Each structure stands twice: as C-alpha cells, then as structure tokens.
Amino acid sequence: MSITVNAAFDSGNILVAGIDGDQVNLTIARDHLSDFFQWFHFRVAGAKGRTLTLRILNASESAYPFGWPGYKVRASTDRQNWRMIPTRYVDGVLEFEWTGTSELVWFAYFQPYTLEQHDALVARIALQPGVTHRELGQSLDGRAIDCLELGTGPKHVWLYARQHPGESMAEWWMEGALEWLTDPANATAQALRDKATFHCVPNMNPDGSFRGHLRTNAAGVNLNREWDTPTPARSPEVLCVRSAMDETGVAFAMDVHGDEAIPANFLAGFEGIPSWTDALGAKFYDFGQRLAAHTPDFQTERGYEKAAPGRANLSMSTNQLAERFGAVSMTLEMPFKDHDANADAEFGWSGARSKTLAHACLEVLAGMIDGI
To answer: So where's the catalytic machinery, residue-wise (predicted)?
Structure first.
C-alpha cells in the first residue's frame, strides 16, 4: 500500500514536498496572508508494517525556530492519546520516525483542540445550571465568538484563550476551568461564583484554529497586537470582546497561551504600563507566588523579560486591560515541550495537565478574590 498524507481537516496543516519510499518530506504552510508558521497537524495512511522517516524541511524558517531543540512531536493512532515521540532538529530540518502498527497515524505540534471539540464544549457547558451563553460577535469568516457566563458576584473576571490558534493547550485549559466552575459538588467554586461573575471566551480565534494557523486570524492579523485599536476589518474578534469588557469592567483577567521555547509554565504581567502602581503589581506577583506554592506544575523562575517603566505594549491584551480597567491582568504561558520541573516522559505537557492547571489557577483565585 502506498503512503498518503492528508491535512484537509479541521486544524490540519502540512504540505507534501515528496515521498521517496519510506521517507516523507514535508513543509508547514504559512498562516494565510502572513509569514507566521509552526503549527502542524496531519495524518498518514498506509503506515502499517513500515518504519517511516518524516522530515519537516522548512522548520528553520518557522516563527520560532529556537523552540525546536528539545521539542518532541505528538503522535496518536486514536486521536485521543497523544504521546511524545523521539524528535531531532538537525541542519534546519525537524525529523522523526514512526514504526506503524496501524494503518493510520496522526501527528501534531501539540495535542489538538478542534473546532468540533470547541462546539461540543460550548454546548455542554451552556446547558449547566446558572450558565448563560452569549455570542459576542463573529469572526472574519463568520464564526461565533462564544462567551460562557456564570456567577453572581460583583467582581468581573474574564478568562479568554487562543488568540493564537496554534496554542491549543489554551483551550484545554479553558475546558478545565469551565468544568471546575460548573461542578455542583465543588464548594470552593460555588463560593467563588458568589463573589465573582465569570466571562469565559474559550476560543478568540476560531478562523485561525480551523485553518491550521499558528498565530493569526483569517486576515493574517496577530490578535494580541490589536487591543489598543481593534477594527471590524482586521480584528472583529478583539473588538467584540473588548466592547463586552467595557460593558462589565474587569477586576481580574487571564489570557491563556502557549510558548514554543520555554519548558515551563509561567505568567507574564503588565510591568511598564503608564498607570503602574506597586500595589496593583503586588497582586499580580502574589498570584504567581501562591500558584507556585499550590502546584508543582507552575514556577516563577523562568519567563519573559519585564517591560521597562512606561514601555509596555498597550496593543497586547494583558497590558491594555491593566491600563484600561486597573485589572489584575496576566498572561498564562504553557509549554509545547514539557514543564521540566515536573516532567512526564510519555505525554509531556498535555491537554489533561492543562486542565488540571486551570483548576489550580481558580483555587488560587478563590483564596485571593476578596482582595482583588
């Protein structure tokens, strides 16, 4: 049987450069109207009984080539369990091998979270007691920007994910957060809902998610550089969410992402905003310190460089919301690799672990909400 490679499905991305026997040469397609690329997701048919060598030839030209050393491809034969497989990055080529025990195998940059999964999550959570669904607006391709709201408290908390669609761990985190918040047996969640009203946007960029983009929407726009001046033509996804935030105000916000290079979970804050105060910053730092003490899947030693005073980029959501609302605002970054301080040799960082980290984040928030 001949080998075939296919990525013509929800969140798929790969191009075939050539197949020579058991060697499969591939390239990752760029985001539409953009030079960004790194996300891949494809299947191989006809793999059974063969040892395939798969090579992504343009890996060195990707958005974050410094993320490839130490990275491992995720593979699955059932689309449920995604295990890391040995991967090497040599001379600008990402290369991995697969010995087929089944006809079909799927490969991805990280465990996928498809739009079909998103729709199922929204439908399931919208049916839970006390949950209200709102369609805040639509994307450039006409897809819904879904928001799930719950809680009755006076403090407005916004949780939103997948501004960068290739960072699929972010929507796994959102699934974990929504399940935790709606668990009827969770007394901590009930107490938190009494003190806060939650607005949860599981996927800010459904077009990019479906198209298999790494970082941009259907117009090739990086949504996390649009928060100062979003427009209907470039970034209606941001415009509708920010407008809804203007209606409610924001006390606490978490923007959920993934990082290509750093093998750890970490937070980025709003240092450098014009209205920075040590008192507001202390609440952000306190959250990180409490989270690191609460779970071995978080740390505070590794992360991004802080912006200098007055130099924050207000087109990024975390900075914009802290400046606009005085919010305790933060970006959560999870790894495409693993959280090295608490590593998993089989699965690495995963969807399941992203969900568990969401539980930990909300447990910490429950202990701080009175002071926010």
So the answer is: 333
Q: Do the bridges between strand 132-138 and strand 51-56 make them parallel or antiparallel, or are there none, so unpaired?
A: unpaired
Q: pLDDT tens, 142-195?
A: 999 999 999 999 999 999 999 999 999 999 999 999 999 999 999 999 999 999
Sheet strand arrangement including 266-268: 132-138, 144-150, 196-201, 155-161, 252-259, 328-335, 266-268
Annotation says 149 is catalytic = no
Type of residue at 112: P
What angle in degrees, to the nearest 10, is found between the helix axes of 351-368 and 278-294?
130
Strand pairing of 252-259 and 328-335?
Answer: parallel
Q: How many residues does this entry show for the chain? A: 372
Q: Which amino acid is at 18?
A: G
E strand or H helix that includes residue 195: helix 187-195
Distance CA 156, CA 238 (A): 18
For residue range 121-149, list pLDDT tens digits in order. 999 999 999 999 999 999 999 999 999 99
pLDDT of residue 13: 99
For residues 330 and 320, the answer to whether their CB atoms sit within 8 Å is no
- Identify residue 205 by its one-letter amino acid code: N
Q: Collect the ranges in the chain with pLDDT lower than 50.
A: none
Say which of 95, 271, 333, 363 is annotated catalytic.
333
Q: How far from 150 is each of 133, 190, 254, 332, 370, CA to CA, in Å? A: 9, 10, 16, 22, 18
In the chain, the domains with their CATH numbers are: 4-108 (2.60.40.3120), 115-371 (3.40.630.10)
Chain centroid to CA 244: 21
Pairing of strands 252-259, 155-161: parallel
Across the chain, the runs of DSSP E, i.e. the strands, are 4-6, 15-20, 23-27, 41-45, 51-56, 74-76, 83-84, 87-90, 93-99, 104-108, 132-138, 144-150, 155-161, 196-201, 252-259, 266-268, 328-335
Query: Across the strands, what pairs with 75?
Result: 83, 107
Q: Which of left, alpha, beta for 341 (phi over 0: left; psi -120 to 50: alpha)?
A: alpha
pTM (2 d.p.)? 0.98
